[in-house]
Specification:
Oligomer: single chain
Largest sheet: 10 strands, mixed
Shape: globular
Order of helices and strands: EHHEHEHEHHEHEHEHEEEHHH
Number of strands: 10
Strand content: 5-15%
Number of helices: 12
Distance between the termini: 26 Å
Strand order of the largest sheet: 7-6-5-4-3-2-1-8-9-10
CATH architecture: Alpha-Beta Barrel
Structural class: alpha/beta
């Protein structure tokens, strides 16, 4: 049985917002062409055909990201899903979309419902923080608009999760953030660290390793108290780490210290190995011209897979080396410095409780 995921950027880096920390804007600005426009129909068909060509036993996930993927328009997604459903035989197809939540209306919800989309909504917690970081082109906050989208998704019974960017500023308020999730019944949350630029230049928003540790220690205490009451809140980091104490592989890529081949498809059909590395130097080929096997074997893909990770002196005698291995090579800049590891600091704090939960699974 074959499992494969495609991360598709149907509108390239186009977006209707002006977030203060956008990592994909940084990526796009490091390319010769920053935005490739909306994906054309022949590219869409080539992508779907290649995926279906894996065989009838294939489990295929088409995940849409940006930029803001809804900038491609409702008609694009209607055409994509109709073509995929018409041409599949026995393949299992799942659809997912990550959105800033400002363009979703009832027509979008009808499409999501019809094709069983899983929706990720970008929401940076409570209003003050969200509106500071996530603004529209007129530099107005978008919290109220996004929260109306969440209510609409609930009305249509569309499954969704929350994606929150953990900035330096937000890391100082773990209690307020956790309380916000709990009060609003937001039970599926992924927190991703705010990254410095690709040139590793620091900025006031990016998360530092000591902030990572202090935030997650406090956040884990709050999460654990609810867990012991029987109130489970899915936090992606915890969901992945806890089973690892029992030898179960994490679902999140990079957490074991090595990369696996990904298929990130830009709107012109160019293929890249990772969402963090949609850069000219890592272009593997084009979905219209190259087979999936050829794309995996390209020099660019192999270079990406074999690149060394940053060193930390704490790794040498770390008791968690077998569940870390220096972690994701892009995210780990927010986990450790040359001589301090916030990831280890947090795990030392949480390990006993995590192991107890792991043993009960």
């Amino acid at each position: 049985m074959k499992y494969i995921s495609f991360l598709i950027k149907p509108a390239s880096s186009l977006c209707n917002m002006r977030c203060r920390y956008c990592f994909y804007y940084d990526v796009a600005e490091h390319r010769e062409v920053s935005a490739y426009g909306i994906m054309e129909e022949n590219t869409m068909h080539a992508l779907i055909d290649k995926a279906l060509g894996l065989g009838e036993d294939a489990h295929i996930t088409f995940a849409f990201q940006g930029g803001e993927p809804t900038m491609a328009g409702l008609s694009y997604f209607t055409s994509f899903c109709e073509y995929a459903e018409k041409h599949k035989t026995k393949q299992n197809i799942q659809y997912a979309l990550q959105t800033n939540g400002t363009r979703i209306d009832e027509l979008w919800c009808a499409l999501f419902k019809k094709y069983n989309f899983l929706i990720g909504v970008s929401l940076d917690g409570y209003k003050e923080i969200h509106d500071y970081f996530r603004m529209d082109p007129s530099l107005k906050g978008t919290f109220s608009h996004v929260f109306k989208t969440i209510q609409l998704l609930r009305q249509y019974e569309i499954p969704f999760n929350i994606l929150t960017v953990l900035t330096s500023q937000l890391s100082k308020h773990p209690e307020k953030l956790f309380r916000f999730y709990k009060q609003n019944q937001l039970s599926y949350v992924q927190l991703i660290p705010c990254l410095p630029g690709l040139d590793e230049s620091e900025n006031k928003n990016s998360l530092h390793p000591k902030e990572f540790a202090s935030f997650y220690k406090a956040f884990f205490r709050l999460w654990l108290a609810e867990y012991k009451k029987g109130n489970y809140i899915s936090i992606t980091l915890f969901d992945n780490i806890i089973p690892m104490f029992k030898g179960i592989r994490p679902q999140q890529c990079g957490m074991l210290g090595y990369c696996t081949p990904q298929f990130v498809i830009e709107s012109n059909g160019d293929v890249y190995p990772c969402d963090f590395y949609v850069l000219d130097a890592y272009r593997c080929g084009n979905i219209k011209e190259d087979s999936l096997i050829k794309l995996v074997k390209t020099d660019a893909m192999q270079k990406f897979l074999k690149e060394e990770r940053r060193e930390c002196t704490e790794c040498r005698n770390c008791p968690f080396v077998n569940i870390c291995h220096k972690n994701c090579k892009r995210l780990n800049i927010t986990y450790y410095t040359k001589d301090y590891c916030g990831y280890k600091d947090f795990l030392m704090y949480a390990k006993d409780e995590m192991m107890m939960i792991s043993n009960s699974l």
